[in-house]
Design a protein that fits this description.
Strand 7 and strand 8 form a beta hairpin. This protein starts with 10 loop residues before the first helix and ends with a helix. It is about 60% helix and about 10% strand. With about 425 residues, the protein is an alpha+beta fold. The chain is flat, with a radius of gyration of 30 Å.
């Protein structure tokens, strides 16, 4: 199992605490030099005796550890809200949030620095008191900074759990994932050859296909003189020993293609955006389905989800999937990947929402209107046909007992969607 180094709440706080330890060592060195008379610090740094320093540091450390507990409680509450309102798949988004990680790190570092500074204060009999006032001032300044950090964190959490911001971030993720698919093979439009199953390449683990290193696999297939055709694509769930791909070649039993194949396919317990733009779509769809659940019944949120999904389909229409064929340096076909085409993503977008919208004229109208907004960006007849199919299904799925006034609104949205999906030349006739 692979775990992303970004998706945790301990790495940045640990690094911040380590940095605090280094600063403590440096500050203590300066304070010791001042104590030994090697250098002289400004007199205004000295604010009293060792007892005064201990009182200040004790208050600082106590307040910071209490506030850190509050920050951690807010973080846990945020994760709980995200899991119940948006789905557990969005927990990773909150766990890798830089604002949360940095805030926890600053409070933890301030507490550690203050506690170590408190321990360094000494006042023994027949000995001069050692009061590291430079370290104390640093601790005080950090404590004051924590007030601003706490205010920022509360504002940050309040914004992060708003559904509009979540949907905008997911839409941005989808656009990023689509842009990552642009590659050299996008411009190649050749017929896809039939590949014999001379060698079956099996799944090395159970889980989701997270990514496939096509460049390395092309090199491995070229070395073996083979053509590899995938049966599955990133984002799909596979079980151990299932057929992921088949290879064609004259003497594949004597090659290392199977070992190279296992190294190029990454399988994990969760889906990722890398090579799987549909994952962002699935997260938005999940929010819409939760909004339409009987316990929530929030069609406004569902309509908002549909609007952002429409923007995702617009991006996809403007960045169509390229050729699934990968060539080696000599121009020979080596790898044929499985591409999730526009029709499949449209079905994954609208089918689940349509199935829960049959009793909601508001959501049905929102779906039809979103399709009308996408229509001007469509390029091919196949794309129009895919959306026209969804328009027909949305109209047919509406509950027959819907009030006449509500049905009129759905029928009007249906007519506009059908008209928008017509080619320009047919509209002008």
């Amino acid at each position: 199992m692979t775990v992303s180094w970004r998706t945790n709440l301990w790495l940045i706080p640990s690094l911040t605490v380590a940095a605090a330890l280094l600063i403590f060592i440096a500050a203590q060195g300066i304070d010791r030099a001042n104590y030994d008379g090697v250098l002289v610090l400004p007199t205004w740094l000295d604010q009293g005796s060792a007892a005064d320093a201990r009182s200040l540091l004790s208050a600082t450390a106590g307040a910071i550890i209490t506030t850190l507990g509050l920050v951690l409680s807010i973080t846990v509450l945020t994760l709980s809200i995200a899991a119940s309102q948006f789905g557990q798949r969005l927990l990773r988004r909150y766990m890798r949030d830089r604002g949360t990680q940095v805030c926890i790190g600053i409070f933890a570092a301030t507490f550690v620095f203050s506690l170590l500074t408190l321990l360094s204060v000494t006042s023994r009999a027949h000995e001069k008191e050692f009061v590291p006032w430079l370290s104390i001032w640093i601790s005080t300044i950090w404590a004051l900074t924590c007030i601003a950090v706490l205010i920022y964190y509360i504002n940050h959490v309040a914004l992060s759990i708003q559904v509009n911001n979540v949907l905008a971030d997911l839409s941005a993720d989808f656009r990023w994932a689509v842009s990552q698919q642009d590659g050299p093979n996008q411009a190649c439009r050749v017929s896809i050859p039939v590949v014999r199953g001379d060698l079956t390449l099996l799944s090395p683990a159970t889980g989701y296909i997270q990514s496939i290193n096509y460049q390395v696999l092309v090199s491995a297939a070229a070395a073996a003189g083979a053509i590899v055709r995938f049966e599955s694509r990133p984002g799909q769930f596979v079980v151990y020993g299932a057929t992921l791909a088949v290879a064609e070649g004259s003497n594949l039993s004597q090659t290392r293609l199977e070992d190279d194949f296992r190294r190029t396919v990454r399988i994990g317990v969760r889906r990722t955006l890398l090579q799987d733009p549909e994952f962002a779509i699935a997260q938005i769809v999940e929010i819409a389905l939760r909004a339409m659940s009987p316990g929530v019944n929030d069609p406004n949120t569902a309509v908002t989800c549909v609007n952002w999904l429409a923007d995702g389909l617009r991006v996809l229409a403007q960045h169509p999937a390229g050729s699934p064929i990968h060539f080696d340096s000599r121009g020979n076909i080596r790898v044929i990947e499985q591409v999730n085409d526009f029709k499949q993503i449209v079905a994954a977008t609208y089918d689940p929402i349509r199935q829960v919208a049959r009793n909601s004229p508001m959501l049905t109208i929102g779906m039809l209107n979103s399709i009308s907004h996408i229509a001007p960006f469509l390029r091919t007849a196949a794309e129009r046909e895919a959306l026209h199919h969804q328009v027909q299904l949305a109209s047919e799925a509406l509950n027959p007992i819907t009030l006449s006034g509500d049905r009129e609104g759905v029928e009007e949205a249906y007519r506009w969607a059908v008209m928008a999906l017509q080619p320009l030349d047919s509209r002008s006739r």
